[in-house]
Design goal:
- This protein is mostly helical and 300 residues long.
- It has 14 helices and no strands.
- The protein folds into two domains: 54 residues, no CATH class; 218 residues, no CATH class.
- Helix 11 packs across helix 12.
- It is globular.
Length: 300
């Protein structure tokens, strides 16, 4: 039987819709400084009120639910812009890691188990998880059945795909699940191709990078966000996980084989972004320690 409190909450009426002008009024009533009300209404017409106000959370007084004195609409918009640009850098950084892991898994699996060995549950730890994965893979084939290489393999090979083709249909989440269900000796072979990366570390990292990628792909907030999953950190100059995005960026450097691009593109872009918005953000809300630049540049 449902708890009476749950029943009462279920029957609680939802908030009513408000106009952009009313939304500005609500923000002002809660203590937010609005520099230009017309401009604020215009921005709220482009960015959902619920999305934008999430960036005011660090400035909220937990006692009276109002915003701390001096909190301005412009500052909130700047932190929103920072977050938007941070997501773009993260997606750019994740892409070569995802492609690299796909390549290494496909190459290893093809020579160890054969071109269709990935379809055999005996080559994995858990049969049930493998069955679930294959259902997801068949769904990916159906969803992409008009793509040229998929049509080619459906027509010419009766919907059979060698592993190096199959991985191109894996999402980052599927890739993480595939690796997670591999036999330990196989995980060890894959992870040994990276410096200071153990088989369980790599599994943890792929899971966390998948979470980050999905947040970025769905335009979800990174600033002031705490991640549920914490990556297993290797021994090194940084070993104090804080559930913020820095934990994930830190472990990504171990999977980035192009050190020149990591330092001169990813890290350089991060540094430029932080310098641009240094008056509008606080590094602790993304988990960046004071010596973050040194930590991320340090070779694994």
């Amino acid at each position: 039987m449902a708890d009476s409190n749950q029943v009462n909450q279920k029957n609680r009426p939802l908030k009513t819709a408000t106009t952009f002008q009313e939304q500005v009024g609500i923000l002002k009533a809660r203590g937010l400084t609005i520099e230009d009300e017309s401009c604020a209404q215009n921005i709220l017409g482009r960015v959902n009120y619920y999305r934008l106000t999430a960036y005011i959370l660090p400035f909220k007084d937990q006692v009276n639910n109002n915003y701390r004195p001096g909190t301005s609409f412009n500052k909130i918009c700047r932190s929103y812009e920072f977050d938007q640009k941070l997501r773009n850098i993260m997606l750019y950084a994740i892409e070569p890691i995802e492609i690299l892991i796909r390549t290494k898994i496909a190459y290893y699996h093809a020579f160890k188990y054969g071109v269709e060995g990935y379809t055999n549950p005996d080559n994995f730890n858990d049969r049930e998880r493998h069955d679930k994965f294959m259902r997801e893979f068949r769904g990916a084939i159906d969803n992409n059945n008009r793509t040229l290489f998929v049509k080619h393999h459906i027509k010419r090979y009766g919907s059979r795909f060698p592993i190096w083709v199959a991985v191109e249909l894996f999402s980052m989440g599927m890739l993480s699940k595939f690796y997670s269900n591999m036999k330990f000796r196989d995980k060890k072979k894959i992870s040994s191709q990276f410096t200071n990366v153990g088989p369980e570390h790599l599994g943890s990292w792929l899971n966390c990078i998948t979470t980050l990628r999905n947040r970025c792909a769905h335009y979800m907030r990174l600033y002031y966000h705490k991640f549920v999953s914490v990556p297993r950190l290797p021994k090194g100059v940084y070993s104090s996980a804080n559930n913020r995005i820095f934990d994930i960026i830190y472990i990504m450097k171990f999977l980035y084989l192009d050190h020149h691009k990591w330092e001169n593109s990813i890290i350089a872009d991060l540094d430029a972004l932080i310098q641009q918005y240094k008056d509008d953000i606080e590094l602790r809300y993304i988990g960046f320690p004071d010596n973050w630049l040194q930590i991320l540049k340090n070779r694994p």
